[in-house]
Amino acid sequence: MSKEPTELRSHRWFGVNDLRSFGHRSRIKQLGYSEEDFVGKPIIGIINTYNDISPCHGHFPQRVEEIKRGVFQSGGFPLELPAIGLSENFQKPTTMLYRNLLAMETEELLRSYPIDGAVLMGGCDKTTPGLLMGAISMDIPSVYFPSGPMMSGCWKGQTLGSGSDVWKYWDELRAGNISECEWKGMEGGIARTPGHCMTMGTASTMTAIAEVLGFSLPGASSIPAVMADQSRLAAASGRLAVDAVWNNRAPSTIMSAEAVHNASVVALAMGGSTNAIVHLVALGRRAGLDTTNDLFDALASRVPLLANIRPAGDYLMQDFYDAGGILGLLNRLQDLLHLDAPIITGGVLGDEVEPAEVHEDNIIRGVDNPVSSVPALRVLRGNMCPDGAVIKPASMDPKKLRHVGTALVFDSYREYKAQIDDPGLEVDEDTVLILRGSGPVGAPGMPEWGMMPLPKKLVERGVRDMVRISDARMSGTSYGTCILHVAPESAVGGPFAAVRTGDLIELDVTAGTINAKVDEAEWADRLARIAPADLGHERGYLGLYRRHVNQADQGCDFDFLAGVGNPEPEIL
Ligand code: FES
Q1: Which pLDDT band holds residue 157 (cuts at 50, 70, 90)?
Q2: Is residue 217 part of a domain?
Q3: Which comes out higher in pLDDT, residue 534 or 543?
Q4: At 531, which CATH number?
Q5: Which of 33, 91, 205, 344 has the most other CB atoms within 10 Å of its CB?
Q6: Measured in angstroms, how far is the CA atom of residue 128 from the centroid of ligand 1?
Q7: Where in the sequence is the domain holding 182, given as residue range(s)?
Q8: Does any domain span residue 129?
Q9: Ligand 1 residue neighbourhood (C-beta within 6 Å)
Q10: How confident is the model at residue 1 (pLDDT cuts 50, 70, 90)?
């Protein structure tokens, strides 16, 4: 123990003897606790993103009791603090709009209450970055507890994966290859237990990133939600939070350029979500690091895709766990990692990685036998996206790695949906579909509209992939030749707004370029005429969001939230 009880943050509320502390102690006693329970003990805030419409966190009522058990076991005092649940499927227009709200809520809950350390309970996509961003800025010892993936889906004996199989069978339904009755039958089979999406979507990617950054117990992110192993993880996370408080393991002691490098390597090796780039940039910038999307660019060609998980591969997270999980994967990546990076346990990343094993080589591949010969993620640049755009080369039709096609431009998703299935629409499989007005400011919140459904008449002819470009994001469970996160977005006057229907678009994924082939003088003339979209005045959170959100290449954080620290509240 490197800290005295009088050095605990909560001492200012409970340990002194004045008018205010009388009120604080008497009101905890009102909850039925004695001074022996909480005075001089690390107070652990359990930030819980459970609510009744978050099926990915459906087991959290039990897990929070298990975390409390662990906190008590180690001589701490747990306090559950509910925070906004960002339930990916239900919250509109997108949970991304509210990620920064969760980050602010987390930071301010931890700041304003007598909290010495935290356990952060999340898992569903944006909850992980939101919780971590807040904890990093508050900079008190924080353990990330991941909800864990749900068990595999099943329908008529076929394994179903979250998201990925929804997109796949939706196209089959539109093509007339499956019936409405069969489509309906999948509803009950695709999500059968609590837990986050069990494909390599944003949730699986971000919980792995949280662990590799050093915020979770080793191996935590791969454990399926409903397993007994997860109950034990919960109690252990509670115990760890108390230990981290006594030993001052604040986020600033583990968030480093090396930790962010490690997280980027893992995102690439897992075939992770494109969303990981935005979130990791935001996390790095919260920690005061100069994290940019160049990081992924630099690593993309060096990191092999080893996790054979859908959508880039064949299996699901339950299989990944049984094959050795994240520790097995990290073991195979040792040469690319900073194994001496500190983690929340007080040890270093390499402690559990070096002895880890892989039990199934087809699910966690060796570096000499990757799932794909192309990178999992890639940053593209060009005249439409000078600050970058992203693509998932391993999850697209390889024939489109180089492509030239004619642009068909839509200025909003509403316009796109209204026109795309029109039998008279002039479009063929080489057309490049362009969607704008869908970025952080324009939509707002940068919804997951980037895997735009293909024109019905082409789906019926068997077309399953086309080049699509947008300033939107797409679900981590999505796939296809989707170029996303175009920055700067059209709504703020980015050059993406200059593209017109009929322009030739040239994509070269290997070279990392995407360009509109427009005469230079003509392009300059168009750029000179672009003005930011008039979005009107918006009150409340939407107004705040639109005025302060950064572009995708900067992590979509609020411009006033980068960095660490605000003054401690005065107790007067
Ligand atoms: Fe929660 Fe996919 S809906 S992780």
Answers
A1: very high
A2: no
A3: 543
A4: 3.50.30.80
A5: 205
A6: 11
A7: 154-189
A8: no
A9: 56, 88-89, 124-125, 162, 196-197, 201, 203
A10: low
